């Protein structure tokens, strides 16, 4: 079994062509496991990213909604929902016909 030697984690992305990805998949996966990040290029244009599985890509739902929930807890005047207002107006006008 081969000993894994990981260099320090790279925060900059390394560009990798689709041909290089196909030909050197094992080596790139080893580097990925060590924390390196890659941008995959096809015909010179970026098509995707390779990120370590331990790296968080999307924030947790509670982190996304924290500001909304805080605003909902604040006492004060609430804003009317413009969509509901439009629906009521549309329903009222259809009844007049």
Structural features, described:
The chain is of the alpha+beta class and 97 residues long. Helix content is 44%, strand content 18%. The protein is built from four helices and three strands. It has helices at residues 18-23, 25-33, 61-73, 82-96; strands at residues 13-17, 37-42, 45-50. A three-stranded mixed beta sheet has the order 1-2-3. The longest helix is centred in the last third of the chain and has 15 residues, at 82-96. The chain is elongated, with a radius of gyration of 26 Å.
Helix content: 40-55%
How many DSSP E strands? Answer: 3
Form type: elongated
Q: How can the largest sheet be summarized?
A: 3 strands, mixed
Taking all residues together, what is the mean pLDDT?
Answer: 81
**CATH topology name of the domain at 13-50:** YefM-like fold
List keywords for this structure.
97 residues, YefM-like fold, single chain, alpha+beta, 44% helix
Give a quick precis of the structure.
The protein is built from 4 helices and 3 strands.
SSE blueprint:
Elements (H helix, E strand, L loop, with lengths): L12 E5 H6 L1 H9 L3 E6 L2 E6 L10 H13 L8 H15 L1
Parallel strand pairs: 1-2
Antiparallel strand pairs: 2-3
């Amino acid at each position: 079994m081969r000993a894994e030697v990981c260099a320090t984690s790279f925060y900059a992305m390394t560009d990798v062509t689709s041909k290089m990805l196909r030909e050197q998949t094992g080596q790139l996966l080893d580097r990925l496991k060590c924390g390196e990040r890659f941008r995959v290029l096809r015909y010179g244009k970026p098509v995707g990213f390779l990120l370590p599985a331990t790296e968080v890509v999307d924030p947790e739902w509670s982190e996304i909604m924290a500001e909304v929930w805080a605003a909902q807890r604040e006492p004060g005047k609430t804003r009317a929902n413009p969509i509901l207002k439009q629906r009521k107006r549309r329903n009222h006008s259809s009844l007049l016909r």
